């Protein structure tokens, strides 16, 4: 018996333009003790050299390897017909961020060693709470039928308080992945987000996530989507983002079913700003989607709403970190930095065009967000008032739904009255101000605005009890009402109706969506909902019910 110790070193060489891989193997003898017969596959003619008779084979690489290699090449330009802009919409906790992670990994956009869970959620708050607060964009490259495609993904939040973020990202896309949890089915935010997507005429691809769970019922959920939303689910994709099942099918479906952007590269530049943030070193950084024309590094650009002009010092794409490029054309999503010092110059929803060749008409932009919940923010130390104002301005750049105006109080001194879309939004803004800008704040209890009609037909809006006219001068007081739709399993209908009646709610309608789930609609005063209504809804339905509300007047 001969004992041989070998060290084997294998390298895989994967050229980008071929689909086969070559394996180069070097064999090093560490030690062997015995002469071998010349007929054996290992035979020795010297004591120190070993010959190995072997065959070399070339195999086909796995799809994953090939995708990763293509992903490294994602800055390469593709024709406009090969660009796909899409976003992911879903209810809270249905697996949007996990799916986004998997897409980034499968397309090789993020290396395996850099990967972490919820890769796109880059705020500490988002990681702690496990929710998405900000929309995030990422550019990926995918190869389909030997052609390179550029996929621009926008991950959106799922909570009702951040629906303004969702509506902004939908305006920058042509398609949407509708992710539904295969064990929980259609929920309130699923419906709300689908209607937002349909208003923007997006192509919707239904995706059933978490099919690996023991409680998953994909067929029941498919039926539910067809009945409730009216989407055809015959070609819905079954996937599990955690296990990586069905991810390739999703990438193929995006290429096949999402329409490409219109080819308008020859027209004057028009780009829609869908997000922005303040960088202390580079000023305001603007995220935009080019609708018409093209933009090059160093161009003189003009913001149509604020009527200011700057030079684009740096433009690039988000992949998911910022990567510089020389030019972007119609259909692409990117960022620009132009040493913009003033926060008010680059507002979300504004149109960017060339200074020398201005577009005739600006893009429609976004509707203004209407704040629902108001509270007073006061600095603990009165000297921090100006810092609080700067912080609010910078935060408003990143969170366009935030509204604020100065306010004075006898007890607290100078501060701001801020408007938010909901209680969670209020909590997040307060926490971000304290963390990111090192402020210590006092928050007053949330309240709503009342409208008072006086005897002389004057109308006064009161957000503070001290502003209320005297009883002799007022004819009527009106308060804001909301229409609230609760989706719940049938076992909790009684408890939720009782809750709404206690809160001065007016019953409107109840309908069964499927045999086990009902939708209950009420109209109730916003002041009653501002408190702990949502917490009560969750505790009375053991967390199964979900809600969605709209302002009625």
Characterization of the model:
- With 553 residues, the protein is α+β, with helices and mostly antiparallel strands.
- Helix content is 22%, strand content 35%.
- The chain is built from twelve helices and 31 strands.
- The strands form eight sheets. It has an eight-stranded antiparallel β-sheet with strand order 15-14-20-11-12-19-16-17, covered by helices on one side. The chain has a six-stranded mixed β-sheet with strand order 6-7-5-8-9-10, sandwiched between helices. The protein has a four-stranded antiparallel β-sheet with strand order 22-23-21-24, covered by helices on one side.
- It is globular.
- The N and C termini lie far apart (92 Å).
- 40% of the residues are buried.
- Promotes mitochondrial protein synthesis. May act as a fidelity factor of the translation reaction, by catalyzing a one-codon backward translocation of tRNAs on improperly translocated ribosomes. Binds to mitochondrial ribosomes in a GTP-dependent manner.
- InterPro entries: EF-4 (IPR006297), EFG_III/V (IPR035647), EFG_V-like (IPR000640), EFTu-like_2 (IPR004161), G_TR_CS (IPR031157), LepA_IV (IPR035654), P-loop_NTPase (IPR027417), Small_GTP-bd (IPR005225).
- Belongs to the GTP-binding elongation factor family. LepA subfamily. Belongs to the TRAFAC class translation factor GTPase superfamily. Classic translation factor GTPase family. LepA subfamily.
- One of its GO terms (molecular function) is GTP binding.
